[in-house]
């Protein structure tokens, strides 16, 4: 069984890859530059809060969002709750014109979080005027038990966030709010069970606020930052581009609708940033069975995303955006080149589903990839026509 030396070396190779990945994430987390504040008044903010049977927390969540971010609108999606969630939000909406209730009823309700967010997206489109600058409208998804940091809008408005025109989405760090609760399960459940529940909650807090943040910062260097379901900021114009290509921003029936949204955003040529200097808090799961159910759903959702692998590999825009990214030592932010941006928004650039083949050229001086050959005027002005070295063929599958 172990006569083949490759079988002996394979486990050590996997261990080496894991250690390198861990070291890279640790280095990215410890050496990250502090995110600069921007001007939140330069944008229009809308919070999406999907709810189902959340009467215990929805009032507190809406009240805190309105108190900490008074210029923002709060859209609460009641996904046909059996309790008083809709009634509570309706009372808040009668008192505050910036609180909106989106009611959903069966059989159209309870089809997943993505379907609920799409309903809020449709309501927002009807609410906004036709002459609004949708590049300046930002949507933030917050869980029903989520609490956003008071400085979050200033952080994501900065140059590392939406201050960069090439940024389509921003994900902030996630923290667990009940780490100091001595009785997560209640005083009547015993000291041993509560001790295990405290350990489980604190492990989740360490995972999200340190480990996941480091991995996201490391992925920022390859242009592959993912979006989460809580504390997810997206530019409305980016959602429009995804809706035009996929019929809706969030995919219906997806177990990881947030992660799939990030994939669609990257494939469309938008940058996603992770800002670890601000946060959104949520309740950690103290129950082992619910924790296992959550992680099983996440694993199944990741398996669903395997179907995007051919599109990622064959998408010229995705690979070009990664190659076009400047070194992090020279610039803390990046955006696709003018060539890439014009191609991603123009009909001259065929989508990966319809294009058969593209000729592309890379400059030996700056590493920029151009989608056409000869290079477009933008690339020629940077590098010069004679400085391009070679051509290549990349096939986009249907």
Explain what you see.
With 398 residues, this protein is of the alpha/beta class. It is 41% helix and 18% strand. It is built from 13 helices and 11 strands. Strands 3-2-1-4-7-6-8-5 form an 8-stranded mixed sheet, sandwiched between helices. A 3-stranded antiparallel sheet has the order 10-9-11, covered by helices on one side. Helix 1 (5-30) packs across helix 6 (191-219). The longest helix has 29 residues, at 191-219. The radius of gyration is 23 Å and the shape is globular.
Number of beta strands: 11
Q: Judging from the principal axes of the Cα atoms, what is the shape?
A: globular
Instruction: Give the mean pLDDT.
Output: 80
Q: What is the count of distinct domains?
A: 2
Reported for the largest beta sheet, the result is: 8 strands, mixed
- Tell me the structural class: alpha/beta
**Proportion of helical residues:** 40-55%
For the record, what is the CATH homologous superfamily label of the largest domain?
Answer: Spore Coat Polysaccharide Biosynthesis Protein SpsA, Chain A
Short structural summary:
Helix content is 41%, strand content 18%.
How are the SSEs placed, and which strands pair?
Blueprint: H1 5-30, E1 44-51, H2 58-68, E2 73-79, H3 85-95, E3 99-104, H4 113-127, E4 137-141, E5 147-148, H5 152-156, E6 167-176, H6 191-219, E7 232-235, H7 236-246, H8 257-267, E8 271-282, H9 288-304, H10 309-314, H11 316-323, H12 338-345, E9 357-363, E10 369-370, H13 377-383, E11 388-395
Parallel strand pairs: 1-2, 1-4, 2-3, 6-8
Antiparallel strand pairs: 4-7, 5-8, 6-7, 9-10, 9-11
Helix pairs in contact: 1-6
